[in-house]
């Protein structure tokens, strides 16, 4: 599920946390890094389970309403198209999802059913829902399109859901877009009632997990030496004027250039410039690009770039 850029962001955030806490317990900080990375799977399961819980909550509501003493004609014979949606039923009956939810103890919506009710209100006000419910019958293909549109246009951008996730676990906010993109892709791949959902692994492979560990440890253990690499390359910048995130990104980038021989120079530069654009000041990417560009020229002259493989320089 994770790509290398997201891993770099997690490492950056963990190094920043180490600075803020002034912690020298690397074992504890490394555990927190991997905890924040692996929590992305909990977020994935939580959002998927919201789709399941929305259908269940609406079915319970319709059943109770139909049994009221003075139930209206509409309450006695409601439009049940939403709760009969084949894709929502498919998700609810996925053993991979149910086992993962139970194993991870993802029961947030049982404890916060008020949010599910609010989300249902927002869904019922949406054009996506009203268009879908305007007819009584639908094919699996139509049910699938509705669920995809519901997720992409209504649920994923919902402010109530976003606020809940932010309050529940701050690290989830940086994972939200990545998880939503992955879920929407999986929903689009459901083509028939026998389709299955495969729970994604957090890391593409063991190399990515090792990369996270080594980048974190090597950057922290060599911070003073890495800082010396760029300190003389910033004559017009007082060290106190450089944003802390920028110094962390510079150290991480230099660490990759010098201590990760299999990562191409261009990849390192592009990745950290993009991260700087998103997480630091408006001018950070220009500043970092200038420093790295000068350093790379020096490293090439001094033969310090120990890159193995073709095309890595």
- Helical stretch count? 16
Mean pLDDT: 92
The run of helices and strands is: HHHHHHHHHHHHHHHH
Number of domains: 2
Main sheet, how many strands, which sense, barrel? none
Strand content: under 5%
- Rounded to an integer in angstroms, the radius of gyration calculated over CA atoms is 25 Å
Explain how this protein is built.
By secondary structure, this protein is mostly helical. The chain has helices spanning 4-21, 26-66, 73-76, 86-92, 95-103, 108-111, 113-124, 127-133, 140-155, 159-168, 172-188, 206-221, 223-231, 244-259, 265-279, 284-302. The radius of gyration is 25 Å and the shape is elongated. Helix 2 packs across helix 11, helix 13 (223-231) packs across helix 14 (244-259) and helix 15 (265-279) runs antiparallel to helix 16 (284-302). The protein starts with a helix and ends in an 11-residue tail after the last helix. It has two domains: 4-188, no CATH class; 222-302, NusB-like (N-utilizing Substance Protein B Homolog, Chain A), CATH 1.10.940. The protein contains 16 helices and no strands.
Task: Write a brief structural summary.
This protein has helices at 4-21, 26-66, 73-76, 86-92, 95-103, 108-111, 113-124, 127-133, 140-155, 159-168, 172-188, 206-221, 223-231, 244-259, 265-279, 284-302. It is mostly helical.
List the helices and strands and how they pair.
Layout: H1 4-21, H2 26-66, H3 73-76, H4 86-92, H5 95-103, H6 108-111, H7 113-124, H8 127-133, H9 140-155, H10 159-168, H11 172-188, H12 206-221, H13 223-231, H14 244-259, H15 265-279, H16 284-302
Helix pairs in contact: 1-2, 1-12, 1-14, 2-4, 2-7, 2-11, 9-11, 12-14, 13-14, 14-15, 14-16, 15-16
InterPro entries: NusB-like_sf, NusB_fam, NusB_RsmB_TIM44
Protein name: Transcription antitermination factor NusB
Domain NusB/RsmB/TIM44: 204-297
